[in-house]
Amino acid sequence: MKDIAPRKSLGQNFLKNKSVASRIVALLGDISGKPVLEIGPGMGVLTEFLVGQKPLLTLVELDARAIEYLHEKFSNNLKIIHSDILNFDIKRHFEECNEKLLVIGNIPYNISTEIFFLLFENAKYISKAVLTVQKEVAVRVSSGHGSRQYGITSVAANLVCTPKIAFDIAAGSFFPAPKVTSSVLVLDFYEEQKYIDAFAEIMQLVRSAFSQRRKMLRNSLESYVKACNISMKALEDELKAGNLEYLSKRAEQLSLKDFIRLFDIVNNLKNK
Q1: Claim to verify: residue 93 and residue 120 sit in the same structural domain
Q2: Cα dihedral sign for 107, 110, 116, 121?
Q3: Average of per-residue pLDDT across 76-94
């Protein structure tokens, strides 16, 4: 069985350190009999430790060479879907399993943000995700308001889950070795998804707020407020009545709670 050569075009950096792989899989907890979705298994270093615990395992892999390799390595006893994860129907898979999913993967760094948002948008179907990503990205996702790294992805994550960095992985644990340190990020999704139905709308506000990071929200939200068919004066008056000074702050100064409150105020004005 010949190893496959990583392809830069697919963002492949294969984890080769089995000790690290074992630690990553352990973060999922007890997976026996539970539905586990692995993103981009590559040559199966995580798969090896998953299979041993007998979960209801589904692998989503884009590289046909890797699929052939995995079937040979695990004697065809795997459910592998040949697909780009960004085209994978998580809701349908959840309905087939009839249980919330556990997600794991050493995900391609070049599409990590897109994968995060795929998971966030499907938060009601997932209980936990354990993802290996570039450390800089993991820090950004898990950052709180007020920090330099806090941004759109940080707010999005906290709307649907509790993100936490479990540990870092040195570049030498991968082949080829990336030029950055990696981190294992654990996303514990809320049992009750209070904001999932309004997720896309809330994120419109958040994206607008961070579109001009250095400006106060009074300026960065001008186009957004106009698109909502409300006047900035009406919003200012409403915020003033609640003794809220959001418009004189920058986006990174607002907590998740602040963004939700601001969204509710805008929504109420739209519906008047």
Answers
A1: yes
A2: negative
A3: 93
